[in-house]
Amino acid sequence: MLPVPKMFPYRRLVAGLGVLAMVTLVACGPATLPQGDRITDADEAQNRAVHRFNVALDQAVVGPTARGYGTIVPEPMRIGVDNFASNLSQPSYVLNNLLQARIGQATQNVVRFLVNSTIGIGGIFDPATAIGVPAAKTDFGQTLHIWGVPEGDFVMLPGFGPSTTRDTVGLIVDMATNPVRQVVAPGERHYVTGVQLLDLLGDRYEVDDVFDDLIYDSADSYAQLRSLYLQSRRFALGGGASATAALDGDDADIYADPYIDPY
């Protein structure tokens, strides 16, 4: 079984809800893309059907399991699991940093991995952040973005959640090329996957209230989720102070994909 990428789409959704999504929902009300930006959703009917499946899966399995995990497992242990799972993602970050010709970020991630793998006891603790070496998170979807590949259509993936054509390709490549897969013995890969799935449950637990508000209390949770995902993803790809200004409506075009097809 392949290791689960740290930045696979469902994780982006959960993490985004804890950061940009919360700001958007509180400050701006219902999530909408900035005026003039575009959504390409050629298979909306199929995507909505997948979304209904994902909601049912969350309601029946993921949500209750996450709440049980968060209630039973003490917070220090959940933090340790998160740290360990994050450390497993560092080699993949380094690979994509190099493909993006971002040598500084690659070096930063290498240093972080070495520090946390040794002093941090395999990544259970996070001394690297304490000494000022945070993770420079990335993925192959971002690599494709930097290479000039357009965003493509919005896609809802079964069990994974929102994505785009470009990010779906990136997800597949990240899963296939994850350096962890090359060094972990085949019989032990399921342990790695198990840790990363526990980490996902911890993330889901941390944003439980916001997630439920978005998914279960929204008049059209699909449209909200689609808009929110595209905002957070384009924000992550764009970055910078100008992206922050866009949250206040000062720059409506910052979320736009700079490589989007003009026609």
Largest sheet geometry = 2 strands, antiparallel
The number of strands is 2
Could you list the spans in which at least 5 consecutive residues all have pLDDT below 50?
1-10, 15-31, 240-263
Structural class: mainly alpha
**Helix percent band:** 55-70%
Overall morphology = globular
Give structural notes:
The protein has 263 residues and is mainly alpha-helical. It has one domain. 64% of the residues lie in helices and 3% in strands. It is built from 13 helices and two strands; from the N terminus they run αααααααββαααααα. The protein has helices spanning 9-17, 20-28, 44-72, 75-99, 103-118, 127-130, 140-146, 165-177, 179-183, 189-206, 208-216, 221-238, 240-246, and strands at residues 154-157, 161-164. Strands 1-2 form a two-stranded antiparallel ribbon. A hairpin with a 3-residue loop joins strand 1 and strand 2. Helix 4 (75-99) runs antiparallel to helix 5 (103-118), helix 4 (75-99) packs across helix 10 (189-206) and helix 7 packs across helix 8 (165-177). The model is unreliable at 1-10, 15-31 and 240-263 (pLDDT under 50).
